């Protein structure tokens, strides 16, 4: 059963964030910029972690409040390491928002399939490298696509989907990986006695530029129509992420819209597929991700 957050929860319900620092990946447009605006308006100092600093600076210039821009390319583990190595002091909130969707087959700078490498492995490495600084919460943005098409699974025997690549298949795998990552991260945080919580969220159908990079012209056309007729705007789409970031929720909670098909509506605790709830698969994915990135789970500082 879907458990709905307080009626009409919105950005005005975000508690005072003064004195807190947040990092938002993919923050110069779409859900990311809406998330930055809401947190900065509530008093947080927000770091826009973006691949293109010039676009990031242009976005930051339009946001009232305390913000800064730092370069981060999640498709390049050297960039991820550089970002984390430059961090000083506490970090209250990390929002793993950036992502690519349904793109043609390609590889990251480290040779991983781009959707899995960016959406999962880049955030996996970033989170673990920043974890010694984290004091409160990690939110990872997944998608209802973790359920589709068919029955998505982690292709442990062929993570890059070599010879069987399909854009939606790869996207679904990466979004399933986001939920399994959150599940295992919370297990490890709890075992370490850390107060940091890991949660996940999905925006439903939100009109952003993410859909414009789809590898299929037919799907791009469908998305354009859906963006006009069905989708929420980016501010409404960011509400589940924000709720997952500031509400008093159990670790490993998953938040999405409470409307029909979880396409739109207010933020609510929502269900996930059986594949996304498999602790054995979560542990296996974690082990493989450590091997691929060379980044391991540290003992959190705030224990």
Report on this model:
This protein is of the alpha/beta class and 303 residues long. Helices cover 37% and strands 15% of the residues. It is built from 8 helices and 9 strands. It has a 9-stranded mixed beta sheet, with helices on both faces. β3, α2 and β4 (67-71) form a beta-alpha-beta unit. The longest helix has 25 residues, at 167-191. It is globular and about 50 Å long.
Percent strand = 5-15%
Largest sheet: 9 strands, mixed
Mean pLDDT: 90
Rg is 18 Å
For the largest sheet, list the strands in their spatial order: 1-9-8-7-6-5-2-3-4
Unreliable stretches, pLDDT < 50, 5 or more residues? 1-6
Assign the structural class, choosing from mainly alpha, mainly beta, alpha/beta, alpha+beta, or little secondary structure: alpha/beta
Number of helical elements: 8
Helix content: 25-40%
What is the count of β-strands? 9
Tell me, briefly, the overall form: globular
Topology of helices and strands:
Blueprint lengths: L2 E2 L16 E5 L4 H12 L3 E6 L2 H8 L6 E5 L5 H9 L5 E6 L17 H17 L3 E8 L25 H25 L5 E5 L15 H13 L4 H13 L7 E4 L9 E3 L9 H15 L10
Parallel strand pairs: 2-3, 2-5, 3-4, 5-6, 6-7, 7-8
Antiparallel strand pairs: 1-9, 8-9
Helix pairs in contact: 1-7, 3-4, 4-5, 4-8, 5-8
Main traits of this protein?
8 helices, alpha/beta, 15% strand, 303 residues
In short:
With 303 residues, this protein is α/β, with parallel strands linked by helices. The protein has eight helices and nine strands. It has a nine-stranded mixed beta sheet, sandwiched between helices.
């Amino acid at each position: 059963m879907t458990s709905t957050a307080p009626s009409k929860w919105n950005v005005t319900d975000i508690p005072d964030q003064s004195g807190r620092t947040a990092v938002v990946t993919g923050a110069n447009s779409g859900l990311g910029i809406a998330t930055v605006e809401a947190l900065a308006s509530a008093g947080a100092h927000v770091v826009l972690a973006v691949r293109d600093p010039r676009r990031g600076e242009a976005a930051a210039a339009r946001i009232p409040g305390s913000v800064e821009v730092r370069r981060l390319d999640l498709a390049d583990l050297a960039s991820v390491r550089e970002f984390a190595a430059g961090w000083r002091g506490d970090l209250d909130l990390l929002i793993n928002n950036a992502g690519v969707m349904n793109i043609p087959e390609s590889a990251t700078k480290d040779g991983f399939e781009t959707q899995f490498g960016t959406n999962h492995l880049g955030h996996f490495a970033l989170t673990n490298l920043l974890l010694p600084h984290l004091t409160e919460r990690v939110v990872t943005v997944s998608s209802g696509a973790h359920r589709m098409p068919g029955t998505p699974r982690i292709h442990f025997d062929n993570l890059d989907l070599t010879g069987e690549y399909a854009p939606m298949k790869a996207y679904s795998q990466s979004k399933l990986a986001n939920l399994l990552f959150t599940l295992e991260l919370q297990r490890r945080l709890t075992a370490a006695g850390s107060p940091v919580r890991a949660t996940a969220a999905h925006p439903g159908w939100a009109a952003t530029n993410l859909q414009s990079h789809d590898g299929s012209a037919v799907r791009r056309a469908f998305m354009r129509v859906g963006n006009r007729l069905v989708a929420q705007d980016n501010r409404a789409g960011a509400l589940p992420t924000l709720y997952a970031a500031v509400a008093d929720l159990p670790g490993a909670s998953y938040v999405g819209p409470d409307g029909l098909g979880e396409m739109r509506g207010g933020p609510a605790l929502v269900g996930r597929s059986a594949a996304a709830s498999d602790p054995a698969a979560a542990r296996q994915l974690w082990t493989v991700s450590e091997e691929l990135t060379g980044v391991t789970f540290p003992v959190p500082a705030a224990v």
